[in-house]
Write a sequence for this structure.
């Protein structure tokens, strides 16, 4: 099992020793020991052949993960939010009309960001926990407006929903063929099927601290050729201002392994290792395993009376609502006291949502550990749960 | 001696073994083993008390380094350039008149950035290698214009000049009292005296991969109270657009150890260690040591006929011009073949400038190694140099 840290927890009298903490949140995630070793290597200079080779391998590996071999994937130092801002400004002309699909915290964030950056934003909403309805989007596009860009979240981390980006993108392409389709793939990259070229997407944004098993600090941006071309002069309107994060200035540099400003060298070297491990293990197998483990977590929760929250679950996080009378923050704290770190709900879902995740480095037995810890937490909070109830449910799913 | 890496160099038949590389560039720099160890610790979640405590310690330590205890120092994930952009946009109202002092590559960069962001920029130039003349700036300000902001570089890494920010800021305060003074302290932080409060500065920007001995990836921003206040409404003009890097949104969050987006947790934990080491060793002693070692490097160069380039040398980098007939890139390559990485000249100075640096983790003996390697490189390139000529000159300075 992975995810063990050195922050002392409890008094050593519990199931988990005093020097172990399991990190089971939907990012930041536990990373492989090989990646930690790479982070601990002496710092290298970025203007060296060795570093440039590493930088180019990372770009190529990410293009492979995106099933777009040979395409540019831009590496940025920053959060996923920073990367989304860079993609938005690079691709969408200043002041353009933008339709933001909102079904959770991150869908809302992109709408707020776009408005702050001067775009004319309208929202298309779905209740948190529900997946966007393809026909509903089609009606909206035929009846009401002609957006120049659409923002979508693939795996909405706040609700655990995996939105059907392939189908939604097809609808946008059919009804608003010129609209650029910008996708937040922060927690879906390397976790769910994601085919920007085949699906006709225009921007895909992701971050390091999720499915590619790295610490936070790197953002990734892929743009379609029409997005690169459209943005070149912003259709005559120019682009919103940016300097450090100007992807157009950066593109030719990155193609030769350089960047305009000093990149986070240690994280890039670690990314080279992490992506190598990922591709060696096989992306399809990893995606299948993440789905299976996430299903096991949802089954463990259901056995405890915690219903799955997402209509269409992402493999990246097992969002579940606590049964009546059990406050989610209490469960999160009970788990933390046992050395198990999960995420609770965000914003309006804080009182009732649990979000354990096996998105990081780990294996099937991490699902067993999490199921056992959930049982323990339930009992810690006074609920009578037969020993093994959640674990049995999880193991049955793992064996399917 | 520090700075040894694992990239194999040469065939093991040289002075340095095949698994060692000395990193002696003015950033990224060699970092202490304690910092590498911290980077290799299991990833922690950012919404935990332990991480928040680390985040707050880093902010407090940086405020101490800036001799502004208790002040906000904002931590950003990104390069020094990203941090400068965040500071500029946060402090200077949209479209304001800005005077950019340019005496090297970084001085030029801030002028270019400000123009790209829509500011009305004028330049005040000095020849590369020269320090800004205080009286010249005073004349410019009295006779010609009333800027609303002035950008300055403290330690100009491209030329090796330490500009007299205290005196220059005093002149700005005297002749343009309302102008905000924005200082690039990327290579001066923790290397040269830097007292933003006492000197009346309004923004200080720095990065992790320099004097504080961390890998690249974090940026730091300090703003004066009048800068925070002025920017709040941009004097009625608003601010240039920014979302992910909006310091105003970020300020209250960071005061409680949080941030709007996921920070580069591993780098923050490492910063906690690095700054602890730095303050424990004593900032004044370290600054004195860096100055002494840099002087030793300049003396070593002079003994080889390489004249100091900077009129007023920074302790962060020993910029020196190669003697006639010796191409700087050849020297850089000869050193690299011996496992010693220094920086050459940037832009127009590429043919003739060498920029070895002991800004990172190291001690006096690193100056001896660099002096010896410079001698070796000279001999590799066919110059007859008495054995020990550069080393003797360096050691004499170290013993002063």
């Amino acid at each position: 099992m992975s995810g063990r840290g050195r922050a002392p927890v409890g008094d050593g009298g519990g199931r988990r020793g005093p020097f172990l903490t399991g990190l089971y949140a939907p990012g930041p995630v536990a990373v492989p020991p090989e990646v930690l070793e790479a982070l601990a290597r002496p710092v290298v200079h970025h203007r060296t052949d060795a570093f440039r080779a590493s930088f180019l391998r990372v770009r190529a590996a990410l293009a492979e993960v995106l099933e777009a071999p040979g395409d540019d994937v831009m590496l940025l130092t920053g959060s996923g939010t920073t990367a989304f801002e860079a993609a938005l400004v690079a691709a969408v002309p200043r002041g353009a009309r933008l339709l933001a699909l909102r079904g959770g915290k991150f869908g809302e964030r992109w709408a707020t960001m776009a408005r702050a950056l001067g775009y004319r934003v309208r929202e298309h909403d779905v209740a948190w926990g529900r997946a966007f309805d393809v026909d509903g989007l089609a009606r909206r596009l035929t009846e009401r407006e002609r957006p120049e860009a659409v923002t979508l979240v693939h795996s909405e981390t706040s609700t655990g929903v995996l939105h059907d980006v392939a189908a939604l993108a097809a609808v946008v392409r059919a009804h608003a063929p010129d609209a650029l389709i910008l996708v937040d793939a922060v927690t879906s990259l390397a976790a769910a099927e994601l085919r920007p070229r085949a699906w006709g997407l225009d921007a895909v944004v992701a971050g390091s601290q999720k499915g590619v098993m790295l610490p936070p600090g790197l953002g990734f941006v892929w743009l379609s050729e029409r997005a690169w071309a459209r943005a070149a002069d912003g259709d005559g309107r120019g682009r919103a201002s940016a300097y450090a994060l100007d992807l157009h200035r950066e593109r030719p540099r990155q193609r030769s392994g350089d960047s305009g400003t000093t990149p986070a060298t240690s994280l890039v070297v670690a990314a080279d290792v992490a992506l190598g491990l990922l591709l060696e293990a096989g992306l399809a197998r990893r995606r299948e395993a993440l789905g299976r483990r996430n299903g096991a977590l949802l089954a463990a929760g259901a056995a405890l009376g915690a219903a799955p929250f997402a209509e269409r679950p992402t493999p990246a996080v097992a969002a579940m609502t606590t049964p009546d009378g059990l406050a989610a923050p209490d469960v999160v704290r009970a788990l933390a006291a046992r050395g198990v770190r999960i995420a609770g709900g965000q914003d309006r879902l804080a009182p009732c949502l649990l979000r354990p995740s096996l998105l990081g480095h780990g294996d099937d037995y991490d699902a067993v550990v999490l199921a056992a810890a959930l049982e323990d937490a339930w009992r810690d909070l006074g609920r009578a749960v037969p020993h093994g109830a959640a674990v049995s449910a999880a193991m049955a799913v793992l064996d399917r």
